[in-house]
Known about the structure:
By secondary structure, this protein is of the alpha/beta class. 39% of the residues lie in helices and 21% in strands.
Amino acid sequence: MAKMLIGGELVDSVSKESYEVRNPATGEVVDRVPKGTAKDVEQAIAAAESAFKEWSDVTAEDRGKMLMNACELIKQKSGEIAQLLTKEQGKTLFEAGLEIHHLVHGLEFYAGLASKVRGSHVPLPQKGAYGMVVRQPIGVCGGIVPWNFPLTLMGTKLGPALAAGNTIIIKPASTTPLATLLVIEQIQKATYGEGKQQKTLPKGAVNVVSGPGGTVGEEILRNPRIRRIAFTGSTPVGKHVMEVAGREIKRITLELGGSDPMIVMEDANLDMAVRMADVGRFFNCGQMCLGVKRLFLQESIAESFVGNLVEILKKKTVGNGMSKEARMGPIHLDSQRKEIEEQVEDAKARGAKVVFGGERPKGGDLDKGFFYLPTLLSNVPDEAKVSVEETFGPVLPAFTFKTLDEALEKANSSIYGLGSSIWTRNLVNANKAIDKLQAGNVWVNSLHYGYDELPFGGVKASGVGREHGPEALDYYLEPKGVVIVNV
């Protein structure tokens, strides 16, 4: 049975209870993990507070070296980590490998950024006085991570937290804790310093408490000794996080749901746009906050675009992520699949046409898992659930438009505002979309992808604050104003 990591030690829950982690492709038990309690979180907080005293005094350069060494250790275990991730989450081995690569790249980015934190000198009106702004670590942070990208979304919290000199408690999703625990074990072994002065990460600098959100997550939100919360998940849960953590005046970032529009103009590189519509919607079985959720096609190219996309979908093999032939794994949860089916049936009842998919694949091992065919819809009414709700699975509704202004109005009609894209060779149209799209990120002729180098986050119901980029580091540092008077 797997163990939690608290204070540098692999431990069971105080309650001694555990639960099963199952493979969504087969229903088989992958492993058991401890069912954490509020007392386990309290122990993790105590360990993190103790480690903070040491870790915050480590030089920024050495913090960066530790993260770089951690990346090397993760790479050495990447094959084992990828298999474990596929078994617990369902994604293909290829997708799992890409997730590990993204995790490592992000940690390397913050390893380099650790020693680049800058303060400032401020002239003051008082004679013989000047001011400074110094930036210091906050303390113990909490990272609450979802199941769709458990490693990369853990890394977007852990990387800047450790680089800034904080300590952190990770709460993985109940259904995907295993690969996270294996990754953190490698980070715990990472070293910094030279020769006899070489040290490892202080015990308790990183802790992982597995278990239900209603218990473990709630304690992380409510406990006043955790000063910083980073959450990725659904918008309804994000509202709860903001309400509860706000009572303790905690610093919060929320990366929430999305319904990203992809606008394709008739002058676009259509071959590339079709390929990226496929990847942008059906990668990870469509289970992405950041993904193409609504496809807007200019009328003159709509029919050919949809036809070419269908040809790609016909070749997409759905199956167990451990299989080399699989190009799309299962939906992670049966409840998630049922919700997607309800959204598709609602669209059909309102007059939408199923161009491809729209059902569960049948036969053999496919009957054991939570599989659903990649699905393309057309003639979708604006009031259909797939138009107004976040569809967290392999379903893509296509809409048509005459003018860019019409497309922008429809794109902005959503309550969400995470990502967006426009595909065009016209610079005027591109700049207009950049200016008018209500989203935290806009891609022009590019896949919806969260680069570590750029700030990432949403507007409206898609969240608060930013992850990725140097901007993310700001959320893990507290600015302190200092006044010095010459006497």
